[in-house]
Amino acid sequence: MGRRFRQVDVFTSKPYFGNALAVVLDGEGVSEGDMQRFAQWTNLSETTFVLPPTSDDADYLVRIFTPAQELPFAGHPTLGTCHAWLEAGGTPKRPEVIVQECGAGLVPVRRVGTGLAFAAPPLLRSGPVDDELAGQVAESLGVGRADIVDIEWADNGPGWIAVQLADADAVLALTPGYLDEKVGVVGPHPAGSPAAFEVRAFFPVAGAMREDPVTGSLNASVAQWLLRTGRATAPYLATQGTALGRAGRVHVTADEKDIWIGGDTVTCVSGEVEL
Hints:
Elements: E1 2-10, E2 19-24, H1 32-42, E3 47-51, E4 60-65, E5 70-71, H2 75-87, E6 98-102, E7 105-112, E8 115-119, E9 125-128, H3 131-141, E10 150-155, E11 160-164, H4 168-172, E12 182-188, E13 197-205, E14 208-212, H5 216-228, E15 236-240, E16 248-254, E17 259-263, E18 265-274
Parallel strand pairs: 2-3, 4-6, 11-12, 13-15
Antiparallel strand pairs: 1-2, 1-18, 3-4, 4-5, 6-7, 7-8, 8-17, 9-10, 10-11, 12-13, 13-14, 15-16, 16-17
Helix pairs in contact: 2-5
C-alpha cells in the first residue's frame, strides 16, 4: 500500500548540507523485517517509521533503523521524524512540547526558533575508558595517547566513546583507521569563533570506519560530558560535517532540568512509498 513518505535533511537550513533521514509516516502494519529491508534499501544512516503510541503521554511512536539494525534512540532521526510528523499535520497533545516514544522511552521535543530541539536522554554508560581501549582508540585515530585531552564513555544508546583533542584543527585533520567501536571526537574552535566546538563521529561498517555527517545522539552525550567537566558552558554551537563538505549546525542549550539539542530541518522529498 502507499504510505506517506518524507526525506528530510537535519541540522541544516540549507538542503543537502546536513544529515539525511527517510521517514515513513504510516508505519502501522509494516513488519519488522520489511522495515529493516526498506532501511537497507534507502541506504541512509537511519530510516524511521511512525506508529501510534503505546503510552498515553506520547504523541507518536517511532522505530529507528540503520541499514543493519534497529536503534533504541538516535538524535537526528528524532528531530527529522518530529519535523515530518508536524509537517504532515500531526497535532501534539500539549502545544508547548511534542513527546516521542521510542526504544529508549519518552523523549520531549520542543520548538525553538525555526527548528526543533530534543531533551538529551540520560547516559546508559559513562565514566573512564580502560587504558588498553584508550590506546586502541588513539591508534585508530592516528594520534598519540598524549594528544587525547580526555576520553570517556558517553553512551546514550548507540555506544559512543567520546574523545577530546586539543583543538578543532586536530579534529579536522583526522583520517582514522578501523576500530570496532563508535567514536565521537570533539575539539574547541578558537575563542571568538561562531562555533564553540568541531565534532566528528566515526563508526565501524563492514571492516571500515565510516563518518556520520551530523549526529544528534553524539552531540547530546558530548554536551553532557563537556558541561559536567566544565569544558563548555551553555548555550553553545557545535559544527559537524565539515570534513565531508556538509555544514551541520547543532545548538546546545540547558535549563534547570534538561540539556537540549536543537537544529533546523528541511524537507527534500515528499510523496508516497509502496510498503
